[in-house]
Design goal:
mainly beta
């Protein structure tokens, strides 16, 4: 049974978390090791000022740590550990600096530095940058030596440092469990005119990540798997795998791995995580960054962790009035202060030296119009996202979620025990059209029930059309996003015009509504002898129906969105009947006259040789005005006539007549 549930990264505001990590990151060196800081080291690596960890207010918002990773190395005696997820360029704390006479006899010609890149084992340490230049650049030929250590739990100390530092670096300085590089530079004015450069490396992060789908352990940039790894890590939540709901994790991992098209014509996985975090940020902040990278949530329920990635939710239940134990409250719109119609975001662009980069802004002009023409932006940061297409999907999902404005305070009975936060549901209450929602609040009530908070959310939040939704980097056009609260009415409606004076049914059809939010249609009819509209079944997926009726009948149809919003009605009314019909004999026929209805486009004329409607036959010609001459009769022939109006939609009026005359 779900317990009182905080929804981490969604409603975790005000939750405090003690900072994890900290301490002396110089654990790469053993106890009693000496730190040697020369004057050249002081000049090249100014001390980093300590900053207090901060907790972001919302998923993706972290004003203290823009960007996916700190690419600057720094010197500081006490600092926090950092963790690397996926693949990113990172610097780190310099835990050892040394200088020595080089092979040309120049004092301080050799410069040594050890930079810790991650507080755990990594899969690989790739390219290394010296300043903004790769260490493999020809200008560094013969001047650079880089030893890479992946952070194995049993790794040995760097042999070159032991041999060349005069006992400063010993065999005890193994750096077990710490990924690091040991760099030796030969300082020359040509290669290093400003002295020792900043050192950073491209790191492929933790390779001890378990994938329960295969049982394999290795490297992964799947956000759901990385979050599970962090939950079980000794520097994380210290959970056991028994504390994690595996089916939920597998479902989240599968969503992250879904292939999504991009504007470039290729596919990429829906969500990836690439960046570094500092343990000094605290567990809540780190968790928020991970779930923000997959637009998801971490739910703690019944003492277990449920990991969710952002994607369409299959309804776990339909909540009706039978599930209520009290009065329900529906908030139809969000407070103005919570609304926005545009998103500006920062992500990390590998093509721009892994620096924080502005994503193309998203501004929905239709939502701007709803907000009275005021452009309201939300600024967000996605420090663990490195794809311009992915960050735009995250931005669009965030905007679409906030524009679904209905929120329901649902005092449920004990039937709601089957639900937990993040579950999808369908809200179907009396006098409220069914609409999809997600459980965003869950609390046991003292009076024996469950208080649910339901936020409107339909599957179209996660729709993505790269040809329309993705903008090129550097572009900032105003775009129009479909509004889930507005859906167009069918453009037209038509009635199958009967050809006989009597009929048993009328066929009606309407044009399809081209909307991603379309759930179906509502059709109603009203026979002429009935005062009120009558519904025809439930929501229709088809665009045609046959209504049993033997009298003139009006029809109307409207579209229904998945959010529960409805369009205006498209109606096929009963046209007015011909007024004061009359007929007189003329040479070779008769002349029909009367008042032609204003809402008719033509008339049907039924003719019989006796006063018998059942024997009457519709004439082929359908006059569009009165009077109208019926010719082709011989002198002395007597005929009876009935007239029926036909509307532009094909609907028919009541019959007017009979009238009779004899041809002259």
């Amino acid at each position: 049974m779900p317990a009182a549930v905080p929804l981490i990264a969604v409603v975790a505001g005000g939750v405090a978390s003690a900072a994890v990590g900290g301490g002396i990151l110089g654990a790469i060196v053993g106890a009693g090791a000496a730190f040697v800081v020369s004057s050249i080291g002081v000049a090249a690596f100014p001390a980093k000022r300590p900053t207090a960890p901060s907790t972001p207010l919302r998923p993706g918002d972290d004003p203290s740590a823009p960007g996916a990773g700190r690419t600057q190395s720094f010197r500081q005696p006490i600092t926090e550990h950092q963790i690397v997820f996926g693949r990113c360029k990172v610097g780190g704390p310099i835990v050892f600096i040394h200088s020595a006479t080089d092979d040309a006899g120049r004092a301080d010609g050799w410069f040594y530095a050890v930079v810790v890149l991650a507080a755990h084992r990594v899969r690989a340490i790739g390219d290394v940058w010296l300043g903004d230049t790769l260490a493999t650049d020809p200008k560094f030929a013969g001047l650079v030596r880089i030893d890479r250590h992946l952070g194995d739990p049993d790794q040995v100390a760097n042999a070159n440092l032991i041999a060349e530092t005069g006992g400063k670096w010993t065999a005890e300085h193994r750096g077990r469990g710490r990924a690091h590089v040991a760099v030796r530079l030969k300082i020359t004015a040509e290669a290093f005119p400003a002295g020792p450069p900043n050192i950073a490396a491209l790191v492929e992060g933790a390779d001890t990540i378990l994938d329960p789908r295969t049982g394999a352990t290795g490297w992964s940039d799947n956000p759901a798997l990385c979050l599970a790894w962090y939950l079980t890590a000794p520097f994380g939540w210290k959970a056991s795998w028994a504390d994690i709901d595996i089916p939920a994790l597998i479902a989240a991992a599968n969503i992250c791995d879904e292939l999504i098209g991009t504007r470039a014509g290729v596919t990429e996985r829906r969500y990836t995580v690439n960046g570094r975090v500092s343990l000094g940020e605290g567990k809540i902040a780190i968790t928020r960054k991970l779930v923000a990278a997959m637009a998801g949530a971490l739910v703690v329920s019944g003492g277990r962790f449920f990991i969710h990635a952002g994607g369409p939710a299959l309804p776990a239940a339909t909540l009706t009035s039978d599930d209520l134990r009290g009065d329900v409250t529906i908030q139809g719109s969000r407070p103005r202060r919570d609304l926005f119609n545009g998103v500006r975001a920062v992500y990390v662009d590998p093509a721009k030296n892994w620096q924080p980069t502005d994503a193309p802004p998203l501004l929905a002009s239709n939502y701007v119009a709803e907000d009275g023409g005021e452009q309201i932006y939300r600024d967000m940061e996605f420090p663990l996202t490195t794809s311009v297409a992915t960050v735009q999907r995250l931005m669009k999902a965030e905007l679409e979620r906030v524009r679904r404005q209905r929120e329901v305070a649902f005092p449920a009975n004990l039937s709601a025990l089957r639900l937990r936060p993040w579950d999808g549901v369908t809200v179907a209450l009396d006098r409220v059209g069914p609409f999809p929602a997600r459980v965003t609040g869950w609390r046991l009530s003292p009076d024996g029930g469950v208080d649910l908070t339901l936020s409107e959310e339909d599957p179209a939040v996660w729709d993505w059309n790269p040809a329309v939704d993705e903008r090129a980097a550097g572009d900032s056009p105003s775009v129009v996003l479909p509004n889930p609260g507005v859906i167009a009415a069918p453009a037209s409606i038509a009635v199958d015009t009967p050809t006989g004076a009597a009929f048993a049914a009328l066929g009606v059809s309407w044009s399809a509504v081209g909307s991603a939010y379309l759930a179906g249609y509502e059709l109603e009819f009203r026979p002429a002898s009935v005062a009120t509209w009558q519904g025809y079944g439930g929501a229709l997926g088809a665009t045609a129906a046959s209504i049993p009726t033997g009298e003139p009948t009006a029809f109307r149809v409207r579209a229904v969105a998945r959010s529960g919003a409805v369009s205006g009605w498209r109606e096929a009314a009963i046209p007015g009947a011909v007024t004061a019909p009359a007929v007189l004999g003329i040479s070779g026929g008769v002349r029909l006259s009367g008042g032609f209805p204003a809402d008719a486009v033509r008339l049907q004329v039924f003719e019989a040789s006796s006063n018998s409607l059942t024997a009457a036959v519709k004439l082929p010609t359908e006059p569009t005005a009165l009077p109208w001459d019926r010719t082709g009769l011989t002198a002395g022939q007597t005929r009876w006539y009935w007239l029926r109006a036909v509307s532009a939609e094909g609907n028919v009026s009541a019959l007017a007549g009979p009238v009779t005359a004899t041809a002259l």
